Amino acid sequence: MKIKAFIMFMMFLMIVRFERCNGREGIIRPYWRKLKALSSSSSPSASDATFNVLNYGAKGDGKADDTKLDGKIIAPTSSSAWGSGTLQWLEFTKLKQITITGKGVIDGQGSVWWNDNSGMPSTKPTALRFYGSDGVTVKGISIQNSQQCHLKFDSCTNVQVSDITISSPGDSPNTDGIHLQNSNNVLIYGSNLACGDDCVSIQTGCSNIYVHDINCGPGHGISIGSLGKDNTKACVSNVTVRDITLQNTLTGVRIKTWQGGSGSVRDVMFSNIQVSGVETPILIDQYYCEQSKCKNASSAVAVSDIHYTNVKGTYTYEAVRLACSDSTPCRDITLDTIQLQQASDSKSSSSNGSFCWEAYGEVKTQTTPPIDCLQSRASNSKAASLDDSNKDSC
Ligand SMILES: *[C@@H]1O[C@H](CO)[C@@H](O)[C@H](O)[C@H]1NC(C)=O
Ligand SMILES: *[C@@H]1O[C@H](CO)[C@@H](O)[C@H](O)[C@H]1NC(C)=O
Ligand SMILES: *[C@@H]1O[C@H](CO)[C@@H](O)[C@H](O)[C@H]1NC(C)=O
Q: What is the DSSP secondary structure assignment for residue 68, as one 8-state letter?
């Protein structure tokens, strides 16, 4: 069984390498046509065979369009197969028009990595990563039990992800579902994401992001950030997240930034968000901190033009928490049609369902719970002058 896993791994590496070698020629595509037959075969010869990807449909001529992943690719579980410092298991870089479709499963067999004394390398790989590519489509496949993040796009443009399934346990550490960084024009829809961290994580350098019809849970919710760690500049703009259902997640839709950063998050729309047993459905946290204490700082990633419409369901801690920066308050936040009921098994919170700090904007309709902590800009001269002080450096 182990040997077979390793062979599947090696075969995948061969395919990846094949594509990379041909990458210089221009447009290329990977081919997995017969992987299914291979992976389900239990013939003894599978354990000592050498596979040539050219015999399995790979052409790499930039024209053939048979891009399929069926069957199952499983990661090796012995630490010696990995070496140290492996950041990604399966990686595709600098491609144009790459498509992965099919009913196949990529299984990171991550449980051997998830506890601290696992004996596995301390750097945990992302299962599937695309870097520096344009026109990436991922459709239909499942990715499960990743060692760490399941699916990552870094420095990519024109990305479409649909009909995929991601699944790992709610307590598997740092297993983000889909992670976006420095990527533009990304469409993610029609997918079921269950993991131990953010279902979708939108990081710095992302713009024109559209996420819809996603089911998230377990997990930490749909997140922008964390941004601005170690005094870095972060820029995120034009994000739409709509028609999302979340069950038993830590947060629903959130924006998290570290103190001390710069840059901005702006033009974000969260609409039609249905939550069930979610700790904090609406959260802006500009005091994000992963240690027990973080240094106070006098700068922050600015947060503005954030809109919440039609957020409904049940929460278990606090319905709305807008904890904005003292130095750079949040501005132009709107809340419209918010109906959040406390679930019967709730933890007690010190607020009455909503909390705001240095948060400015408008509550457009009556809400449940009442959100009377959001301040209008007219009420505060500091906020009124924000447009001048928040020079958008992005
Ligand atoms: C915002 O992003 C969407 C895609 O999600 C795009 O269609 C639209 O043109 C973008 N708007 C601006 C102002 O760039
Ligand atoms: C940071 O500021 C807050 C609010 O002013 C204060 O309560 C807290 O003690 C400060 N923390 C540190 C580490 O200085
Ligand atoms: C919660 O509501 C009660 C009754 O309206 C009020 O007296 C109390 O100050 C509120 N607590 C907080 C933290 O807003």
A: B
